[in-house]
Amino acid sequence: MFMKRAIVLLAVLSLSSSLSAPDVSSAAEPSPGEGEAQSSSVVVEREHGLIDWSRNYIEASGMAVAPEGSGSAQGKALARRGAIVDLQRNLLEFLGGVQVDARTTMDNFMAEDRVRTEVHGIIRNIELLDGTWDGESYTVTGRVRLPQLLAIVTPNIKEIEERAPRPKQPAAPPKTAGKFTGLVIDARHLQIAPSLSFRVIDEGEREVYGISFADPKFAAQSGLATYYNNIEYAKGELRVAANPIVTKAVKLSGDGVSIVIPNSAASRVRGSSYDFRRECKVIIVCR
User: Fold this and answer.
1) Nearest to residue 143, comparing CAs of 226, 12, 219, 48?
2) pTM, 2 dp
3) What is the DSSP letter of 24?
4) Alpha carbons 127 and 63: distance in angstroms, whole number
5) Using CA of residue 146, residue 148, residue 154, residue 157, what is the dihedral sign?
6) Co-location of 92 and 124 in the same domain
7) Residue 207 falls within a domain, yes or no?
8) Phi-psi category of 189—alpha, beta or left, where left has phi over 0 and alpha has psi -120 to 50?
């Protein structure tokens, strides 16, 4: 298995060097409250970059040195090209390790031709945030949005879920629980790993939220959920404001793929006059 995954990743990396250089995109201007959002963010740092599960992106850097004997302008251009290729390689390594759910990563899906082709398309159109030249080497920083990866593997996730046995869903309750604008799940006491996909179930293991409830358009824009480590910030976050259901997770189920919430909270989700699940208005608070 290890050799198979290694061969797949090497094949993807070898293709990355042939990808065309993307145009430089300007970074977004900081929004009000961004400092507080950053301090509440769930970020996984790795060599050459990071995964930000709160703002839903992978960010990495690439660097290359100008060839000896090249002129100043030519050396800068060649170094920039090499830095972009290095960035593409680094991002591909990050993509392989992103958790799709608690049991699988993107690496598990990269052997499929369709997934691999669409991932190459994302890498070909990297959002370049920054580029610096010090006279000898060029360094670039780029970003890939996590919801783009979710959109790619959504058909695979749905196929897997359709094959899995599920308890019978309860009859749709009358929409009398009030108008709620989102769901905040406090899972700080659980060993939860941020992932692209997950399920929220009630104590009877009936599904409350997951990819089947989300409109693909919204899931591709913002992902199934945002992760934060600050419950107070999460409750006021624009994604779920102004009247979210706030509940504490009971436990994890199914090898960590499903988050169990109390039946009382599940009833309020199902009975809300506004079905916020369609627009993925969900936040998970973790450590």
Assistant:
1) 48
2) 0.82
3) B
4) 16
5) negative
6) yes
7) yes
8) alpha
d(CA 266, CA 188): 19
> What is the C-alpha separation between 144 and 126, in angstroms, rounded?
6
Clarify whether residues 139 and 26 are in a common domain.
yes
Q: 134 and 187 in one domain?
A: no
Q: What angle do CA 197, 203, 205 make, to 5 degrees?
A: 55
Does one domain contain both 139 and 183? no
Confirm whether 160 is domain-assigned.
no
219 Rama class: left (phi>0) / alpha (psi -120 to 50) / beta? alpha
255 three-state secondary structure: coil
pLDDT in tens, the chain (287 residues): 433 333 333 343 344 444 444 444 333 444 445 556 667 999 999 887 899 999 999 999 999 999 987 778 899 999 999 999 999 999 998 899 999 999 999 999 998 999 999 999 999 888 899 899 999 999 999 999 999 999 999 999 999 888 877 666 666 667 776 899 999 999 999 999 999 999 999 999 999 999 999 999 999 999 999 999 999 999 999 999 999 999 999 999 987 889 999 999 999 999 999 999 999 999 999 98
Query: Exposed e or buried b for every residue in 97-136, given b needs 16+ CB within 10 A?
Result: ebbbbbebbbbbbbeeeebbeebbebbeebbbbebebeee
Number of domains, the chain: 2
